[in-house]
Amino acid sequence: MATSWVLLPDIDIAFSKPPFNQSPNMTVIKSLIGIYGEWAASLVPNLPALSFRQNKWNDTKKWQKEALAKTNELLSKPNLGKTPTVTLEKKYTYDGLEIEELSWQLPYGRATKAYLLKPQGVQKPLPAILALHDHGGNKYFGKRKIVKLSDDQHPLLKDHQEHYYGGKAWANEIAKRGYVVLVHDTFAFESRRVLYEEVGGFFWGPLKTEGKSDAEPEKPENIQAYNTWASEHEHVMSKSLFCGGTTWPGVVLAEDQVALDILSNRPEVDKNRIGCAGLSGGGLRTVYLGGLDPRIKCAVCVGFMSTWDDFTLHKSYTHTWMLYVPLLPNYLDFPEILSIRAPLPTMVQNNNDDDLFTLPEMKKADVILQDIFKKAGAADHYQGKFYEGEHKFDQAMQKDAFDWFDKWLKS
């Protein structure tokens, strides 16, 4: 008898989807991959192997241990060694805040640049927030998308904050409420971005670098051209990382954890009262960092919550390669990554008209999170909220998020 070469996860067959059989006369439901969509979605069980919703899981800590181990295994984070030395580049005050411009060198690439914001005259350890910048199809900017450092702001940053953040630099706003806030560039953004001059091998197509220059990078037309190129480059970066034995989410998580190390070591920070938050790509980063690192005592994921089915059938094309971890859907649905943190306080903010997701799947993800926190005996530690409007983290949403942080990090 022939032996199958496919190694499947050890799952409870009672929770598996039935085998997919499509009749030649069956109506085809449209999907991103055509006739193959329903079949592809059927390959993942309704309750994945490590879903806490399975009846076999009753001990929260035992489940967390196994879910963490498997997720970290599949993420294949690179080992970044000991916490790097931090250099203070500049220090000044603006809008009632003390601001430090920082940098640190990881084992690869150019130095990571960051901003630390805190209320003036801090005398005692304060709660802290690791503020995670968005993706937004904009790799030229990273940390600058969510801060304001002077009255002289780049026009594209001003437009970005008007469009997504209700005209506010949300990292500044929460710092004013009594938090130490660290905002850093993650892998392939701003100070960590790939330069044209570093790239070789593209002689045709949209990734061709001939005629492109890294000179005068702050000109709006050059920024827009770079972002178009960087978007096309994402699949190349992700494939190369796979071939290097890691994943894009694994690299970003490793870099975000270095930033968390640095924030935790600050003398003005109470390391037992640290939260994280972010919109869109920052929400995605919150899912992985908040889900996998218990040092994050309170997490707010904004504008990035749905299910693997949503990505399989409807919305994978709207999302960055920073999302995808091969084989992880066999073990956890997407919201279950964040739920590994249960019972630690968690808020998810969704927009009803967010065209990056489908509303039914956002609501399904919310129910999954509710069920897991309830089973963990912490129903009141999770809050899922839906707002009218498109993809955003506006002032009303910011108020709710900041109030949530105050509730759990200041009490």
Structural overview:
- Helices cover 34% and strands 16% of the residues.
- It is α/β, with parallel strands linked by helices and 411 residues long.
- The chain has a 9-stranded mixed sheet, with helices on both faces.
- The longest helix has 24 residues, at 220-243.
- The protein is globular and about 55 Å long.
- Continuous helix count: 11
Main-sheet strand order equals 1-2-3-5-4-6-7-8-9
Mean pLDDT: 93
Determine the structural class based on helices, strands and strand pairing. Answer: alpha/beta
Number of strands: 9
Distance between the termini: 64 Å
Strand content: 15-25%
Shape: globular
Helix content: 25-40%
* Helix and strand sequence: HHEEEEHHEHHEHEHHEHEH
Unreliable parts:
1-16
Rg of Cα set: 22 Å
Nutshell version of this structure?
By secondary structure, the protein is of the alpha/beta class. Helices cover 34% and strands 16% of the residues.
Topology:
Elements: H1 37-42, H2 60-75, E1 86-94, E2 97-104, E3 112-119, E4 126-131, H3 155-165, H4 170-176, E5 180-184, H5 220-243, H6 248-264, E6 269-279, H7 281-292, E7 298-302, H8 308-315, H9 334-339, E8 346-351, H10 359-375, E9 382-387, H11 395-409
Parallel strand pairs: 4-5, 4-6, 6-7, 7-8, 8-9
Antiparallel strand pairs: 1-2, 2-3, 3-5
